[in-house]
């Protein structure tokens, strides 16, 4: 069932998805003041006003480079999760979160829009890794009967992050010419919180058993998460999953795209995700 320690572990992990939501929406509200900052930086360096087209280009790069970082992080998520483990991967990823937040937060102080752009790229990589590692960790620590329901916590954290970023971005709060670096720099908070909370949590039992073959450690992790010594059912379910995965044919990305049987489900999934983003939900 849903134990207190399992809730704690889920909260600690889902801070990564909150980070993703917050950084997706945080750049929108203070657009005008950040564009003015770009113009001020240009004038300070070159003693003339920036052309409107150049200002728009720099602003567009600062916004869109977050998505480029997200793609990089998303593609690397599986590699990081398998190489370092789900928990350790999340902890290491927070170094990127802290670094990206600091770059954005200090960009105005150092009069550098390049720092803002680089910070957005770094925090984008951080969020891309979170979108892979957080659902992976939560699904692997959750009991089988709660796995589907707890999976929705990821999207809930994203929407809470989006909402908070929009509220704090109001001009009367942090969306003004003096406070916008703090608005962007607040991305350090969920990263630091996760670095403090997550070390108490165990590594994913599935990773320990199926990837590392550490059955005793997997049992200890399950006992802590389930608050019970009766974990044989979970162990057997993992073994059955491992046996089933070994009998499945392995496919490369190219084979997946070429497969006529999988082409329609793949197309539907891609179109649904594209439709969500093209609807302007994050605009």
TrEMBL record:
GO molecular function (one) = fructose transmembrane transporter activity
State the Gene3D superfamilies in the record: MFS general substrate transporter like domains
Ordered alphabetically, the record's keywords are:
Cell membrane, Membrane, Sugar transport, Transmembrane, Transmembrane helix, Transport
Among the record's GO biological process terms, what is one? Answer: fructose import across plasma membrane
What is the protein's membrane topology class? Multi-pass membrane protein
Regions crossing the membrane = 5-22, 57-80, 92-111, 117-138, 150-170, 182-201
Q: Which GO terms describe its cellular component?
A: plasma membrane
> Which cell locations does it reside in?
Cell membrane
Q: Which residues form the Major facilitator superfamily (MFS) profile domain?
A: 9-283
Say if the entry is tagged with keyword Cell membrane.
yes
Q: Which residues form a coiled coil?
A: none
InterPro entries named among the record's database cross-references = GLUT (IPR045263), MFS_dom (IPR020846), MFS_sugar_transport-like (IPR005828), MFS_trans_sf (IPR036259), Sugar/inositol_transpt (IPR003663), Sugar_transporter_CS (IPR005829)
**Protein name, UniProt field:** Glucose transporter 1
Which species is listed as the source? Penaeus vannamei (Whiteleg shrimp)
Q: Which gene encodes it?
A: GLUT1
């Amino acid at each position: 069932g849903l134990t207190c320690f399992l809730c704690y572990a889920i909260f600690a992990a889902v801070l990564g998805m909150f980070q993703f939501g917050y950084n997706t929406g945080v750049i929108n509200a203070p657009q005008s003041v950040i564009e003015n900052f770009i113009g001020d930086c240009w004038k300070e360096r070159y003693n003339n006003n920036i052309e409107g087209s150049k200002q728009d280009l720099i602003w567009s790069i600062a916004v869109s480079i977050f998505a480029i970082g997200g793609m990089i992080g998303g593609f690397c998520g599986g590699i990081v999760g398998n190489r370092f483990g789900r928990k350790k991967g999340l902890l290491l990823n927070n170094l990127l979160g802290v670094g990206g937040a600091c770059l954005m937060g200090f960009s105005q102080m150092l009069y550098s829009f390049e720092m803002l752009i680089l910070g957005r790229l770094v925090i984008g990589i951080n969020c891309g890794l979170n979108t892979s590692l957080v659902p992976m960790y939560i699904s692997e620590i959750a009991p089988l009967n709660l796995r589907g329901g707890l999976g929705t916590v990821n999207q809930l954290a994203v929407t809470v992050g989006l909402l908070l970023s929009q509220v704090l971005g109001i001009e009367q709060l942090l969306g003004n010419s003096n406070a916008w670096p703090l608005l962007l720099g607040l991305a350090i908070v969920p990263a630091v919180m996760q670095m403090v909370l997550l070390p108490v949590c165990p590594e994913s039992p599935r990773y320990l058993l199926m990837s590392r073959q550490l059955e005793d450690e997997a049992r200890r992790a399950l006992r802590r998460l389930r608050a019970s010594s009766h974990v044989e059912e979970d162990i057997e379910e993992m073994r059955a999953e491992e046996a089933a995965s070994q009998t499945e044919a392995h496919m490369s990305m190219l084979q997946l795209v070429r497969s006529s049987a999988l082409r329609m489900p793949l197309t539907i999934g891609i179109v649904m995700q594209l439709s969500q983003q093209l609807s302007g939900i994050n605009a």
